[in-house]
Amino acid sequence: MSSALEKARQAPDSMKARIFSAARKLFGEYGYHGVTTRMIAQEVGIDISTLHYHWGEKQELYEAVLTDLSDEIRAKLIEIEGLVHGKPLEVRLEVAIEVMCDHLFANPGSAQLMLFSHFSKNRITSELDAHISRHLANIAVAMGLAKDKANVPPQANARVLAVWNSVVNFAAGEDLFRPILNVDREAYLAVVKETLKFILLPAFIRPVPQA
After folding, report:
1. Domain count of the fold of the chain
2. Exposure letters 110-148 (e unless 16+ CB within 10 A, then b)
3. pTM reported for the whole predicted model
């Protein structure tokens, strides 16, 4: 039997999909605790009973949003793996920065959702938490920091997190950071990419000191 999320994906113009789209937008803007089902219903232009008919309670809708986010990121990581396979480390990192920046800046709600879901004081434990370690392992292997996904050292995960958090924060914080830099959106994206490469490439490609 198809889940509510699968049905929404299969019928993007359906009421179920419209509610889901509104919920994802609002959760990205205000976080789980800042959003009510009434707010979502108002965003769609329906009464609250219609929302509950299609999605049940807020927690169920939020879980679907995080599952969708996890699937989205996983698909993007698979794309990156295909692009960088067999390439030198410097090229792998450059491609990863380019692709993830382009994706998150085109979908700023995704970056905001990640920040709210992981760092909110009253965060809600979800299945997305279980996916994070797998995402880190996929990136670590793609970057050549680990030989296989089952044996990723903590140093490799920490380095992946340094890259990941940098990209996510620049994307989610655009409304704050861009006026500080006094640039338009296109220039901001270019500056972010150049800055990340300037900082991260030398850190990753320098020789590792021998013990």
Report:
1. 1
2. bbbbbbbbeeeeeebebebeebbeebbbbbbbbbebbee
3. 0.80
